[in-house]
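Late entry, evening session. Most of the bench is empty. Finally got around to the prediction I had been postponing all week. Sequence below, unchanged from the version circulated by S.P.
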Amino acid sequence: MTSSNRLRVGFIGANGRWGPSAHAPALQRLPQTEIYAVCTADEDTARAAAEKYGVERAYSDDKAMDALCMVAGELTEAAAVVSTQVPQWYETDTKKHVDVTAPDNIVLAGRLEGGAVVNANLGVHPYHGTGYRLEIYGTEGTLAMVGGGDAGAEVKRKIMGGRKNDKTLQEPPVPDRLKWVPEDVRGLGPGYDVGQMWVKFAEAIRTGTRIEPDFDSAVRRHRMLDAIVRASQTGQRQKIAL
């Protein structure tokens, strides 16, 4: 693909941690994309990022929008407890305690649109946490994603699976048909992950095909989050419109 046909990407947060370690290596190596502009919180860092990535356009007054995720279908009803167990955190830079404005524990029980029940426990634990674990139990076996509970440690997570007659869960091979990035991107760690997303994003722009998450996905996710908060505030199970 020629440079004129590449998807031009505006890189917001170009001087952070995740963007430079994951998005930038993938965007620079994928034939479908190029970094066309950068944006950071102030003019100096924006210009430094532009020089680092060899682009001319640098901005410092735009806002980023986070991508949202989905797993195993949408919730149709939920009961929940949303709580802030530690009301203050110690800020090491300022040597002061600051008030916490977000919950640090969420406990949820609900039902998915396909009828399956879901139990979820999300917490911020400073000491000896068990890490990330997602388990899906089906009629033919079990799938699990385990490990990498800390921020930035997502690449340490593993997909495990086992059929009902297997003795233990094993890490299954990833079929080549699901590897969309070139070979030199597959060894980039975080860049492999986001590179997969960028390939499909560029494909959607070029062909008009739908990919997720899109804006409709974000609307559904916020409806779900609002329902979880209401369930916690009222103590009543909430129905969720899809």
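Two things to note before I forget:
The domain at 3-59 is CATH 3.40.50.720 (Rossmann fold).
The longest strand covers residues 75-83.
Will write this up properly tomorrow.
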